[in-house]
Amino acid sequence: ESIDLDVDYGVSLNTVRGCSRGFYRIVNLPGRGQVKQCHCTLYQYADAAGFIPTSVVNLKLPESLGVVQEAIDAFRQDDKVDEVDRAEVAALMREKHDEQE
User: Fold this and answer.
1) Are 39 and 27 in contact (CB under 8 A)?
2) CA-CA distance, 93 to 36, in Å (whole number)?
3) Can you tell me the distance from the alpha carbon of 18 to that of 47, in angstroms, rounded to the nearest whole number?
4) What is the dihedral of CA 55, 57, 62, 68, to 10 degrees?
């Protein structure tokens, strides 16, 4: 919703009034061995309430998504998940080898 107010900021700011909302949905996934996992989705809504040049959007979008990348980096457990996967594959290979003997 747009509200037209005459506000005297004392200078010409050439601004666009808008709003943004967002939330995260985090769902637990089945663990891989002792490694806990989850699926995180960011839902974001933005109402620019006017025209914003593409160059400005392209400049600001990485800032908005930076939070997601920070969370990925902070909670990354790729090595632990890979270790569990390797152990499972090795166990399957041993079982198959034992069955063939």
Assistant:
1) yes
2) 25
3) 5
4) -170
pLDDT tens, N- to C-terminus, the chain (101 residues): 667 777 666 666 666 677 888 888 888 888 777 777 788 888 888 887 777 788 888 888 888 788 788 877 877 777 887 888 888 889 888 888 888 77
Q: Which of 37, 19, 20, 17 is nearest to 28 (CA)?
A: 37
Residues 6+ apart with CB under 8 A from 42: 22, 23, 24, 65, 67, 68
Token pair, residue 19, equals 């709003």
- Secondary structure letter of residue 50 according to DSSP: S
Could you please report the per-residue DSSP string of 60-97?
HHHHHHHHHHHHHHHH--HHHHHHHHHHHHHHHHHHHH
- Closest by alpha carbon to 50, among 19, 88, 76, 29? 19
